[in-house]
Design goal:
- By secondary structure, the chain is an alpha/beta fold.
- It has a single domain, classed as 2-Layer Sandwich (Transcription Regulator spoIIAA).
- The protein is built from five helices and three strands; from the N terminus they run H-H-E-H-E-H-H-E.
- A three-stranded parallel beta sheet has the order 1-2-3, with helices on one face.
């Protein structure tokens, strides 16, 4: 999924719709399958920060998560010299600091872990662990 914020999805050129993602996850859950969804932390920088967190959380809750599901939180690290970075710079988008990304991860984690044991399990997704 990466983000549930439609304007950010357009900026990232992601083809799937939010409605399609929710429908797919609900169909998987109706078939008694557990799901794993990746949400990116910090993607979209300061321009999309609030909408990204709020809309991503709303989409995750609409799926809805249960104790067998897993939400992966992937810390978005921008690379200089990439087309994405160039597009962000052209729009004046500032990358989020480590503290800002941690605050977003904390907000998503807290909201996905519902009281009483329901809600998704939440785990970091350390992509850099697979780069060698």
């Amino acid at each position: 999924m990466e983000t549930g914020h439609a304007p950010l999805r357009a900026f990232l050129r992601q083809p799937a719709t939010v409605e399609g993602m929710i429908k797919t996850v609900r169909q998987l859950k109706a078939a008694s399958l557990s799901v794993g969804v990746i949400a990116m932390i910090g993607v979209g920088g300061d321009r999309f920060a609030h909408g990204h967190v709020e809309d991503t959380l709303a989409i995750l809750k609409a799926m809805p998560p249960n104790r067998w599901d897993l939400a992966h939180l992937l810390d978005f690290i921008e690379m200089s010299g990439t087309p994405h970075r160039a597009a962000a710079e052209a729009r004046g988008i500032r990358s989020l600091s480590l503290a800002e990304r941690r605050a977003h991860a904390k907000a998503l984690r807290a909201s996905l872990r519902a009281p009483g044991g329901e809600g998704s399990r939440v785990a970091p997704y350390a992509l850099e662990a697979f780069v060698y």
